[in-house]
Amino acid sequence: MGNRESIAGGQTAVLAKETYVWYRKFMMEYPSGLQTLHEFKTLLGLQGLNQKANQHVDQVYNTFDMNKDGFIDFLEFIAAVNLVVRGKMEQKLKWYFKLYDADGNGSIDKKELLNIFMNVQNLSGQITLSPEEFTNLVFHKIDINHDGKAATLLGVSVLTMRIDFRRIHQWHKKRSGSSGDCF
To answer: Is the pTM of this model over 0.85?
Structure first.
C-alpha cells in the first residue's frame, strides 16, 4: 500500500507527503486552522457574484462543512480536495446529488433541477437557453416512472447511463451559438 490508503468506495487517498504539503499551505493561509465562507470565496475567486450565484457558492461551502460548525477545517478541506482531485465519477455524482437535493428527501424533483440550471447560468453569466426549456428537456429524459422525481440517490448511476449530457450540451451549443463554457 505504501503511502496511499484506500478509503470508502475504493478511492485512493492523497499521499501522506501531499497531505503534509496541503496542511502547511492551509495553516499558512488560515492560521486558526479554520477557513471561513469569505475565505473560501476568495480562494476560488468568487467575489462580487449576484445573489443567486452567492447562494449556490454558500450551498457548496456548506456541503464541505461536514460538522456544520460554519467553518471548513483541514480534515474537511482535504476531504474536499480528495473528492475533487481523486474522486471517482460515482463519488462526485453522489456529492452533486447531495448538493442539489435541497429538501433532503432523497430525490431531485423538477424544481431542484431548475435550480441547478439557474445556478450554473448565474455562475457562468451566460443565459442562452431558458432554464425552463432546459429543465423540461432533461426532466423528460430522467423522470422514468413519471412520478415527478428526477432521480433518487440509488438511481444516480442509472441516471448517468440514461442521459447523455454531452448530447444535450451539444444541442445547447448549436442552438445558442455558445462556446458551451456554462457546463
So the answer is: no
